[in-house]
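Instructor's aside before we start: the two examples that follow are unrelated to each other. I chose them only because their records fit on one page, so don't look for a connection. First example below.
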Amino acid sequence: MSSREETGIRMLARAAAEFARGELAANRQESDRFPFGPFFSTVLQKAFDLDFFHISLPDSAGGVGMGVDALCVVLEEVCRQDASLGAIVLTHCLAQEILLSAGRTDLIKARADKADEATRFLLACPLFNNPAEIRHVAEVLEEGGRSFLSGTLEYLVLGGLADVAVVPGAKQGQASYSYYLVDLDQSSVAVGEPVLSLGLHCCPAVDTEFQKAEAVPVGGAGQGAALFNQAAARLHPAAAAISLGIMKGAFDEARAYADQREQGGRKIRGWSEMQMMLADMAINIKIADMVVAETIRAVEGQEKGWEQKALAAAIHVQQAAVQVTTDGVQALGGVGYMQDFGQEKRFRDAKHIQACFGLTPMKKLKYLELVSKH
């Protein structure tokens, strides 16, 4: 990376950190009430205005073209305060990557050129499922050279926000699946209410019913799994960066609390048990930091076996985040389970983000398969 690129990344990190502290931190608890409370629409628009949704998108598609490295920097800083926005960005990026992998830059650029607000640019996509493992796909019918979708697609992330989605579909009885771009504003599409999830409440998902809704095929017939695997492989570092941001937020909160809380006539930071817990958290974070940095380098450089490295990194960092957020709750004692400090939210978010691109046990088996091939 050139010195100019490094300077750009540092400036981007500062901008993302300032945005997260100013727009996310103060209202974290209130935002987490969604879908029973208001959605942070203003925050979403400001993130769009800062090009957070365009960062990794190539110039030719109407993006900034800064790559996975810059995307990871933004996600880490944002998720240090609230991972819901990070998951929204990652969902949109997954849909973009599928379209890019299919050679449909034209579809993305068409939206980028006319989008003046976040919801006009956002793409919905099933972020928390691998259709080859758990078959949540729409049924495809082809008539007169046109494609139509029917059936119910569960847990379509951003389906209640975006007006367009990239979704998997297959003909009845067909083993393989394909991807389709579908307009959610059609009268033949019924979008359900946001599903209350474990974490990431402001990254809403909905069950969506298609009743012969017209859709545009993306990529070749039956190439859905290949497109998904290619897109997910490039974005595993981004998913890991979300977990890393959550870890750092948990450590910041635990350390600040230990510096302020007194018991037995002294700050609890002075207790050996607290020092050991904070040390364990810091060590796990440092290792995760190095893993993410090395993985980004491998992915950007397309090093031999980069897909394997990216998957292993995501699994490892996401598991570490669960441990660190557990320690973060424990460091605060009883109040760690309350909403006031955000630790219980980080614990839920860390568990939820593990399901990016499919369930963790299935991803571990996928990694074993990659190892066996090499």
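Example two begins here.
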Amino acid sequence: MESWIFVRNNNAYFYKFLEPISKELAYLARELENSIYSSPRTMLTHARTFAEAILQQAMRVEEINDTSLMTLKERIDLLSDKGYLTKEIIDALHFIRMSGNKAAHDTRKFRYSEALLSWEAIYTIVQWYIEVYGPVELVIPEYQDPVPDSGSGFEIAELEVRLKNMENLIKASLNQQREGTATEEAAATVTVEEAPQEAELPGFTSIRTITYKGKSLEVPYFLRDAFLLPQRFEKSERFLVKLGAEQQARIMSELPSDLEGLHKHVKRYNEKNDENLFEELKIYIKEETARRKTMLNRPGELFLFYKEDYVIVTEELAKVPLTTDEFTGSPSLFRQLNQDQIETVGQLPRELVILAKYENVGIGTVEKLFEQLKERQGG
């Protein structure tokens, strides 16, 4: 019989080998791995959910009565009393439980070493579960500590969202099984009809949903407090300026979850303005997502962005003076830039549409400058 063996590489995570048994558990373990070096407290707190889900699976297979109101300690004691747990597994479970309780209540700083000990205890429990209940053909890899950069880049708030999403999915799956919707063949298995998409790069977890008349768009974590520069919204520029004057819609987090009726905060605007802003937000999020991926894939580079396109500013290009001798276009723009001590390409703002704020400078002038910058880069 062919064995399931997963070789870990830079694009994988340690508990990928759990996917044939339970994608929910595998993905929750992935988020715990991401948390170890980003926030030991977060990892220790949520490791309890992973341990509890393992025990709930064991109780279901053993046909032991289980309710959602039972605590982790009660499940440990019940399975222990019935002889299903060895002393090693009991100790590992209680270590995770007590460490998680301390992390949830104690304000002290938690160390990476504490999270790694909990990570090792999880391996002990997973190994036991697979050996007792899992497919005999699944080969468990040897224990590995996560490498220090495995969690870098994810902020704590984003990790919390990702962990909560996975925990909710596990709870929903267990509830379905408790209600008898799982098949007999899946007695030792949890599956999901649609596996959650893995966010390979930090910042792309959906943090909120914005709707308008039945349509919706997802706001990624990295844009949660993004400044909504009016010049980025061609049809909604004046609308956003007016809203900003009323301290509305200046940043993404100020937008309501439903844009319908947003126009009521300002005079002489209507539902069409709400609709236009919603549609342009879709474009904005798409462009910003592409930009972030570009910057993450090319760290250390200096970019100048115009809509969905960009120019990489090399050392040579950065030194080019902003004058009519170098660029054709609006002498007025270069004069005003020089007055603001912006004298070379390297001093330009990353978001070029900002240049349209200058007097007698339109978006066409900015676009013409960008095209010339692209030509200089190509040359």
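The radius of gyration is 27 Å.
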